[in-house]
Amino acid sequence: MRLVLLSGGSGKRLWPLSNDSRSKQFLKVLKNSEDEMVSMVQRVWRQLEKNDLASKSVIATSIAQVDMINSQLGAGVPIVTEPERRDTFPAIALAATYLYSVQNTDLNEVVGMLPVDPYVEERFFNRVKDLETALLDSKADLALMGVTPTFPSEKYGYIVPSENESDNFLIVDHFKEKPERSNAEELIEKNALWNCGVFAFKLKYIINLLNDKGLPTDYKELLINYNLLPENSFDFEVVEKTENIVALPYDGSWKDLGTWNTLTEEMASNITGKGLISESTINSHIVNELDIPITLLGIDNAIVAASPDGILVADKESSPKVKEYVSNMQGRPMYEERRWGWYRVLEHIKYQEGNEVLTKRLGINAGKNLSYQMHYKRSEVWTIIKGEGIFALNDQLNHVRSGDVIHIPLAAKHALKATTDMELIEVQTGSELIEEDIYRTTTSWEEIENSCKINT
């Protein structure tokens, strides 16, 4: 059995900490058994490793999240990268062609799909393994895993079984999306399950579907023609059109930590970052990524979350609505993790004359490097404030250290490798400060060194 972890999302439900490049699964607000702060994706990947599933897994994600995944899980994790976001059916189709044409997976191999961020106990993954047996024994087209409800939730979709019975699995009759409470109570009486987004199929089921649609089944070809895939969810494009579906119940602990009120239930501390909560305050949390302290006095059941992207103060019951209010907010992410480290935007100014100034603080991990790149619409000034490294400028190498100030003219090729952990302040000045003005020659430091001379 192969697994594909779906990592997507627009990053709005846990605003302001989450954004388009740092969705909820990358927020380091949970603690592991070693008392280290970890993200949801790190927690899930560790569970996959414990259950001997990580080596059989790939992650399907958008190009905006690749650096974050590499930063948190390491560069060796197989990643299927969507060239653009087009919903879950295109993402799953692309992952299927990757397994088929790149990893040469047999067409009869069972492929399981699951979100990258469920908050579950270890035995959840044993049940995931059971999907293979259920699919093969039932001869169904799809096998789903559903959670036995603990209350009549109006927030989850339901898998409703038919009256036909089987000892090893349920035969699916239909689905109900986010019912009202009274309807949810009726569904639970019919042994309906919460739909947790976990399902499996034989690889040939999706490959044959692509063939029927006249779409490429070769990964590289589908990448080029990705815009031809229907921009639909997998549920709409496949599940609703499939008649032979079975489901496995899972009666263990499961949570969707997709909103502040559910996430704070699993956080190890009421205060993350600089903050103070009065002793009389009940069930309130502070999550603070800023360097200034937050003090919360006498406001119960509240979440205060602060990051360079903004500040949220909300009653926990109202916090799921934050997506409605910030979905139209535009602008660059103010904090990102990259394959080489991280950066935080300190200030971004647009002047009436047309020029812009962007100030960032960057952290580069020891042994990592920025790509060899150039810009045609901006110049940069770097001030090294911590550590030392090797700086490449127009095919010349120089040693740099804390206290050095580096001027990078327009159209100059430049890169930096950290020999120790480094931090620097970067000031960009130009007519248009956008990611599209980055022209990379290579990300390999070995290639950079081979093209450069060392200044003595």
Entry keywords:
alpha/beta, Spore Coat Polysaccharide Biosynthesis Protein SpsA, Chain A, 3 domains, 456 residues, 5-stranded mixed β-barrel, 6-stranded antiparallel sheet, globular, Man6P_isomerase-2_C, 11 helices, 35% strand, Jelly Rolls, nucleotidyltransferase, nucleotidyltransferase activity
Q: How would you describe the overall organization of this protein?
A:
Helix content is 21%, strand content 35%. Strand 2 (30-31) and strand 3 form a beta hairpin. The N and C termini lie far apart (56 Å). The mean pLDDT is 91. Residues 338-441 form the Mannose-6-phosphate isomerase type II C-terminal domain.
Which ranges are low-confidence, i.e. pLDDT below 50, for 5 or more consecutive residues?
none
The overall strand count is 31
* Helix-strand makeup class: alpha/beta
Helix content: 10-25%
Spatial shape: globular
Beta-strand fraction estimate? 25-35%
The CATH class label of the largest domain is Alpha Beta
CATH superfamily of the largest domain: Spore Coat Polysaccharide Biosynthesis Protein SpsA, Chain A
Count of individual domains: 3
CATH architecture of the largest domain: Alpha-Beta Complex
Strand order of the largest sheet: 20-21-22-29-24-27
Rounded mean pLDDT score? 91
How far apart are the first and last residues' alpha carbons, in Å?
A: 56 Å
Total of DSSP H or I helical runs spanning 4+ residues: 11
Q: According to CATH, what is the topology of the largest domain?
A: Spore Coat Polysaccharide Biosynthesis Protein SpsA, Chain A
The biggest beta sheet reads: 6 strands, antiparallel
Radius of gyration, taken over Cα atoms and rounded to an integer in Å = 24 Å
